[in-house]
Amino acid sequence: MQAVSKRVGRQYLTQSSSISSLKSIYPLSDHYYGADRPKYGSTLATKGVGHLVRKGTGGRSSVSGIVAAVFGSTGFLGRYLVQQLAKMGSQVLVPFRGSEDSHRHLKLMGDLGQIVPMKYNPRDEDSIKAVMAKANVVINLIGRDYETRNFSFEEVNHSMAQQLATISKEHGGIMRFIQVSCLGASSSSPSRFLRTKAAAEEAVLSELPEATILRPAVMVGTEDRILNRWAFFAKKYGFLPLVGDGSTKFQPVYVVDVAGAIVAALKDDGTSMGKIYELGGPEVFTMHQLAELMFDTIREWPRYVKVPLPIAKAMGAPREILLNKVPFPLPNPEIFNRDQILAQETDTLVSENALTFNDLGLVPHKLKGYPIEFLIQFRKGGPNYGSTVSERVSPDAWP
Known about the structure:
The chain is α/β, with parallel strands linked by helices. It contains 10 helices and 13 strands. It has helices at residues 2-25, 76-87, 125-132, 153-171, 192-207, 227-237, 255-267, 287-298, 309-322, 338-343; strands spanning 67-71, 91-96, 115-119, 137-140, 176-180, 212-216, 219-220, 240-243, 249-250, 253-254, 276-279, 285-286, 304-307. The strands form 4 sheets. Strands 3-2-1-4-5-6-11 form a 7-stranded parallel β-sheet, sandwiched between helices. Strands 7-10 form a two-stranded parallel ribbon. α5 (192-207) links the parallel β5 and β6. α4 (153-171) runs parallel beside α5 (192-207). The N and C termini lie far apart (111 Å). Keywords: Ubiquinone.
């Protein structure tokens, strides 16, 4: 037994000497994983949250140090923003007010525990504070282009943004606040939607002058509310109504580019703080040209019915008149949304001297190609079936 104990003791001493030699080469500390280690101290920049990667190589399983409360994350733009934030290792707080299914698709976008759904009520200030409690970034995507019996333009687009800015200011630990507005927002616009968006910008900047305002144009993507509606209407009824003569100009933008712009503004060294960016696509379309592109993609013969502005307004007026006067909810407007029709009376283009994608170091995609490839689902018989552009020859031209 003594011989065995001596042999074990010699082995332990040998291992201890080897460990000490390793320590001399690679210094180790008992507090390496402790919170008091300088490596794990807060690296939040005083002018933004740029360069916050604290652990890992910057991928999905890393820890970027960003804890973002994304209000409106269950919407169209929200799913693309959550995906880009989660891809860089950020923790995303997902406030939702609907059912448990409303956020289910977002949980797969981040690593385990990085996508955190939180039930909240936009009219309950305490529930909003609970969402923001551990966040250092607040991004407001809340917005609606039509009214309902429960939520007006003023409450959704203006009051909620102002409330988020006020709570963020009281929070004290919010390093960045990003407000997503809308291109064409103006206090003099005939559209109430655009007027309330302009009022929200003013309210946010009055509370947080260092907030970043982003004004995206009409967004196009797999779940968009313009090309999908047009294609569905054209397939169902065989024609597409064009408000006016279809000559109104605008700059539709790919939704992934808008999400990328938000992340770029979030990751910079603070140069985007207190600034307003107008995010329009690289091409200018008229309503008629965009409809032609839609028909070309779904491989259908273009058929239009041009609806004069006064008639289009009259068709959209009954819903606004009856909205709060009937004891039941009315259908959501699709093509004839009176407020959108008012907004389409003037061109919606990026201002000449405005800050754009280029100032964020990004180049937006052109629409033709991948950004509208989702429209092939509307081709009759499948993606490879239907008439092509070269086959659209008038029978009168045949010999």
